[in-house]
Specification:
The protein has 130 residues and is mainly alpha-helical. Helices cover 77% and strands 0% of the residues.
Length: 130
Amino acid sequence: MTRNQRVSTIRRWGPVLAWTAVIFGAASVPGSNFEDVGFDFPDKAAHAIEYAVLGFIAYRRARVKDGASAGRAFGVALLIGIGVGFLDENYQRMIPLRETSAYDWLADGLGTAAGAGLAAGFGKAGRRTR
């Protein structure tokens, strides 16, 4: 891989990596501190929303690569979301007052699928208007 190809890959996937860092940053906050910063949102909804953003971004990035098909881009986005969700849930075991949950991981996966599906829908709408 040439230097230009590496730079292109980093630029293409940079938003996914940046959002993953946001997810892990949120996971690093001890559980009782969420109320202290005014965060009073149902846990599963929060998981679904943060992973919907990840799914949306990952789908868009996957579609850029070599004109990947919608199905392949959706699969890549889903694998990324499920993988990050798995790592996130296991990471939270080390954070005080945080807990892991298979239901959180399920919300992560469903959110990823919703976000990727939304991105796919935007792609279809954009092609219809041209």
